[in-house]
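I am still learning, so would you mind making up any protein sequence you like and the tokens describing how it folds?
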Amino acid sequence: MHAKLRKGVQEIGYHVPTPIQRSTIPHAVTGRDIVGTAQTGTGKTAAFLLPVLERLLEEPRGRILALILTPTRELALQADGFLHKLAGHTHLRGAPVYGGVGMADQERALRGGAEIIIATPGRLLDHMGRGYVDLRALRILVLDEADRMLDMGFLPDVRRILDRLPRERQTMLFSATMPPEVVALSRQFLRDPKLVQMEEHTVAAVGVTHLALPVPAHLKVDLLLNLLQDETMTSVLVFARTKHRADRIARQLQQRGIRAGAIHGNRSQSQRVHALEAFRTGGLRVLVATDIAARGVDVKDVSHVVNLDVPHEPETYVHRVGRTARAQQRGDAYTLVDREEEADLARIEKLIGMSIPRTRVPNFPYDAPRPAFSGPPRPEGRPSFRAGGHAPFRNRGRPPRRPGRRGPRR
């Protein structure tokens, strides 16, 4: 690689390329299309950023030459920060483009202030709709987390963007998982791609200890609280299926004196950045996240991942547990599984090529009954609104209207 790039690589602390980097970079720097699959935390970001920088070093400034599409704001910010470190000794400039913040700075970058744009599809389309995004000089397109970018949620936006790009370009797809249907779909956008697949026998991150904890659904939060009594669980990422459930779990943990926060799509960008930074620096012991938000959680020292809900898609499990044991470290992944979720867990085991051991926590009250729903307490003296009753102050001063009789026309 160019001496300016080698200097940036050395300053980051890289000495030996990871397998995905070693297998990808020689092909990518020649301009060949790439489909790269490797576990999370194995250096995929550098595997596409370094070839992008190498190929653009001799290109003129002031035009958008490379576009990197990511599904979340966090991933955009993460890739942009890494890009600035690698390109610190070059003339190439990068800029993140994502929602939840003002558009003015992003507009300046898109008008010619940056050669490499790292964007989420929705916000990029907002800018494209205003007419000042010129992509005619684009040389390279990268789809990060390609399995998510090519699913039915993002695919229409991705297609609209691709329709505006030059056909003569290099396209690279990277993800921890690449289902066959996604690979088949990707062939519509790539030309004779080089397939780079690491760890064919298991797609789960190396260094992760997997454990399943069977438990009734109504006791999952209680079991999580029991697990958190273990002081070795210093930095815990908890996955919940929905945004409201993530908020509720974070509040329950806070009420028990546990430093916890939540990150999901309904939080503002400043709230998400603050929560992630607090988790990264140790201000939060537990971060409760939904799947789409957590794809940008790149924290080196996550000690445990807890799946409070078993994901329906087996590939989602791979992305979740890959948040721990990053950069060849070790970590633990606990999955709390209800009887109705056993089928989902079986599909996960098939995908990762291993049987996840089951265990029970000693002295935990697994037979505790489900609490009866009584609703929120009603303030004393306030009448209830039962079906068939009369609400207070209704029709005050007027006799009740007889059934079937219509009032005067107005």
Notes: DSSP finds 15 helices and 13 strands in the chain. The domain at 3-197 is CATH 3.40.50.300 (Rossmann fold). The mean pLDDT is 83.
